[in-house]
């Protein structure tokens, strides 16, 4: 099996849909458990918030690499299409919702993050939006990764080698940029995100056929071993004490074993019809979930802390165990409902760049 040099064949792969759905659930869980866990479960009444944050940090080596690897695998055919066929779906349809929803987040999220300084918070959000450091940063970098893959499509192995070299150089590059006064810290951190995650997108693009073939030949035991290895390496990394180089080696090992576990186990569980249908259904709504869920979490955090329900559940075992999963589920369901409403009302400009439809009778066009 060789690296990709030509478009992939038609047809959906059920376990890829499932893995894509898993990646969005992990992102939402992270934003609830790590981003809001200590607010929903305050430290003065329970240690559960810290435990949820720790769990999500353990998943960090696999969460975004999984998302980007799947994105690269799903971009193979588009990379080989003519420019006119990809400018809108692969560039504009990401850039527009990124800017639109970043603006919406900026004008609403101050109620959670800076209730006493909304103007200052909005200005800060402008800066993080321009440097891909806001809540929707991964949508901003997808077009960049796509363009990189397209530029290197004639030499895929070389492209992957360069991406791997950039990954290795990401940490010293960030340190160097942070030492240069002329480079804003946000820009350095935004560049760091691109350099450490590009390799997983490129790997998904270049190695798509190999990943699919090996995943579908693997046995359940292989997935369980990979999951066990991921857990062991992650725990070892948390212990620390091995130095910077050891930490980065363990990070790469955790990512690779975590990706292997997710892919192999997905090929097994997707044989259950309901799981396959659920993965396909949720996987086709990932963009809406990515865009809407941060706003839902903000509302939940602002409301819950001062609500009668929040006071009643404060410090309870029920809240410790179920509150983070419940808010995660709520965010996903509200986002899915938003997706359905937008689809039924024809509000295409909410999740994609507005299109102009030409009227056949007059030649005029209307904005959608």
Structural overview:
- The chain has a two-stranded antiparallel sheet with strand order 1-2.
- It has one domain (14-217, 272-337).
- The termini are far apart.
- It has helices at 14-33, 37-40, 48-58, 60-74, 76-79, 83-108, 110-113, 118-130, 137-151, 156-179, 185-206, 208-217, 220-239, 243-269, 273-283, 286-304, 308-313, 317-345; strands at 356-358, 365-367.
- It is mostly helical and 368 residues long.
- 76% of the residues lie in helices and 2% in strands.
- A hairpin with a 6-residue loop joins strand 1 (356-358) and strand 2.
- It is found in: Cell membrane.
- Residues 13-337 form the Acyltransferase domain.
- Keywords: Cell membrane, Membrane, Transmembrane, Transmembrane helix.
- It is a multi-pass membrane protein.
- Belongs to the acyltransferase 3 family.
Count of domain modules: 1
Question: How large is the share of residues in beta strands?
Answer: under 5%
Largest sheet: 2 strands, antiparallel
Dominant shape: globular
The termini sit apart by 44 Å
Structural class: mainly alpha
Helix-strand topology string: HHHHHHHHHHHHHHHHHHEE
> Helical element count?
18
Number of strands: 2
Average pLDDT metric: 92
Low-confidence stretches: 1-10, 360-368
Strand order of the largest sheet: 1-2
Helix proportion range: over 70%
């Amino acid at each position: 099996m060789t690296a990709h040099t030509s478009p992939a064949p038609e047809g959906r792969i059920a376990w890829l849909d499932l893995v894509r759905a898993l990646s969005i659930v992990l992102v939402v869980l992270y934003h609830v458990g790590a981003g809001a866990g200590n607010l929903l479960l305050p430290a003065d009444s329970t240690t559960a918030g810290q435990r949820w944050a720790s769990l999500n940090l353990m998943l960090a080596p696999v969460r975004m690499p999984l998302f980007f690897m799947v994105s690269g695998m799903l971009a193979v055919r588009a990379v080989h299409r003519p420019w006119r066929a990809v400018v809108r779906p692969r560039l504009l349809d990401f850039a527009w919702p990124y800017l639109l929803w970043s603006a919406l987040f900026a004008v609403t999220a101050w109620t959670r993050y800076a209730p006493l300084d909304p103007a200052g918070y909005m200005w800060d959000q402008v800066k993080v939006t321009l440097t891909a450091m806001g809540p929707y940063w991964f949508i901003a970098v997808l077009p960049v990764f796509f363009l990189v893959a397209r530029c290197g499509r004639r030499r895929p192995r070389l492209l992957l080698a360069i991406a791997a070299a950039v990954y290795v150089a990401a940490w010293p590059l960030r340190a160097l940029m942070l030492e240069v006064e002329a480079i804003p810290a946000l820009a350095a951190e935004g560049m760091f995100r691109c350099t450490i995650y590009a390799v997983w997108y490129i790997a998904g693009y270049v190695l798509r056929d190999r990943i699919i073939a090996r995943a579908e030949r693997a046995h359940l035991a292989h997935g369980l071993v990979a999951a066990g290895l991921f857990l062991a390496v992650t725990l070892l990394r948390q212990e620390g004490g091995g130095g910077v180089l050891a930490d980065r080696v363990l990070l790469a090992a955790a990512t690779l074993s975590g990706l292997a576990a997710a892919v192999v186990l997905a090929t097994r569980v997707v044989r259950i019809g309901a799981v396959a249908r659920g993965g396909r259904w949720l996987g086709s709504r990932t963009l809406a979930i990515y865009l809407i869920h941060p706003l839902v979490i903000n509302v939940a955090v602002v409301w819950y802390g001062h609500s009668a329900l929040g006071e009643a559940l404060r410090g309870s075992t029920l809240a410790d165990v179920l509150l983070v999963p419940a808010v995660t589920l709520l965010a996903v369901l509200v986002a899915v409902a938003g997706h359905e409403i937008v689809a039924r009302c024809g509000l295409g400009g909410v999740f994609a760049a507005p299109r102009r439809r030409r009227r056949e009778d007059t030649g005029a066009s209307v904005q959608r």
